[in-house]
Amino acid sequence: MEALLRALIVCIVAIVAALNAVPSRAADEPDLIFRRSTVFKLLTPNDKLATYGLDDPGVEGVACHFTVPERGGLKGWIGVAEEVSDISLACRQIGPILIKEKFPQGEDVFRKRRSLFFKKMQIVRGCDTKRNVLVYMVYSDRIIEGSPKNSTSTVPIMPWGGQATVQKCADWVEK
Q1: SS3 for 77?
Q2: What does the pLDDT average to over 61-76?
């Protein structure tokens, strides 16, 4: 019985490690801008809202900011609380836009685990080819069932400074 329990634990650890080690071109860890407490907890950390910023790794000149709830309490403190899916997103042009390489519609820009098992938040990028606009969407999902909660932000590709021409995102979308 003890050997069976040990084998089960090893399998669970291996599955979690494999799911979290999925390679992607997504951005590195985002920069924490600030946190604000929302629910006071006497002996454990408070529930908070945290705002982060990140640069799109595939498109120079675009930055995104997102706010996520972070659970406090004992479960949040030891890292086993399942975070809720309420995430807001805003992306803006912060310089001349330079698309680095072709990308598929819905390409991952950023991905982060939101619970001990199976739930993750993702920011993905697409292109509205008709309007020459980069479209960003944030959502959370699970292996079994996702969340309909999402947020979308758009970045029209505009001239910057003395720039006369701009890239067409349609030229960079994989067909």
Answers
A1: helix
A2: 80
Q: Are 86 and 140 in contact (CB under 8 A)?
A: no
What are the sequence ranges of the domains in the chain?
Answer: 24-172
Q: Is the pLDDT of residue 166 over 60?
A: yes
Q: Where are the alpha helices (DSSP H) in the chain?
A: 2-20, 73-78
pLDDT score for 100:
95
Cα 4 to Cα 8, 14, 82, 117, 122: the distances in Å are 6, 15, 28, 21, 35
57 vs 26: CA distance, rounded Å: 7
Token pair for residue 21? Answer: 């080690």
Interval 101-146: pLDDT, tens: 999 999 999 988 755 556 678 899 999 999 999 999 998 876 556 6
Question: DSSP string of 12-34?
Answer: HHHHHHHHHT-------PPEEEE
Strand partners, 140: 121
What percent of the chain clears pLDDT 70, i.e. is strictly above it?
A: 66
* Sheet strand arrangement including 59-70: 31-39, 47-55, 59-70, 88-99
